[in-house]
Amino acid sequence: MCGSSQLRTELKKKLHIKGLKEKIRANTAGCLDACEFGPAMVVYPEQIWYGNVKPEDLDEIIESHLVNDIPVERLKIKDEKFNRDAE
């Protein structure tokens, strides 16, 4: 997906700056079958899928979801195939 490798690079950088690099990994995946949702990422083990992720969304994902365990609802993919609680 266009921009996804730059997004991962930025995410890895932010995790390193916040001292989370040893606890949280930002890996590249093959096809996630979510192309229609723009750059996508999935957070495990919760299996929360985010779509149309932009660099400016990364701080919110890190602080809200990865640090405080509160998923970012506005970025969640609204499709039951990806998020079981999708509307």
Q: Quick recap of the structure?
A:
This protein has 87 residues and is of the alpha+beta class. It has two helices and two strands, in the order αββα.
Number of separate domains = 1
What does the overall shape look like?
Answer: globular
* CATH H-level superfamily: Glutaredoxin
Report the structural category.
alpha+beta
Unreliable spans: none
Q: How many DSSP helices?
A: 2
Major sheet size, sense and barrel closure: 2 strands, antiparallel
Helix share bin: 25-40%
Examine the coordinates and then state which fold CATH places here, giving the name of the CATH topology.
Glutaredoxin
CATH architecture annotation name: 3-Layer(aba) Sandwich
Rg over C-alpha atoms, rounded to the nearest angstrom: 12 Å
Order of helices and strands: HEEH
Strands, count: 2
Rounded average pLDDT: 89
Strand order of the largest sheet: 1-2
User: What is the CATH class?
Assistant: Alpha Beta
Description of the structure:
By secondary structure, the chain is α+β, with helices and mostly antiparallel strands. The chain has a single domain (4-75), classed as 3-Layer(aba) Sandwich (Glutaredoxin). The protein has 2 helices and 2 strands. A two-stranded antiparallel ribbon has the order 1-2. Strand 1 (41-43) and strand 2 form a beta hairpin. The longest helix is centred in the first third of the chain and has 14 residues, at 4-17. The chain is globular. The model has no long low-confidence stretch (mean pLDDT 89).
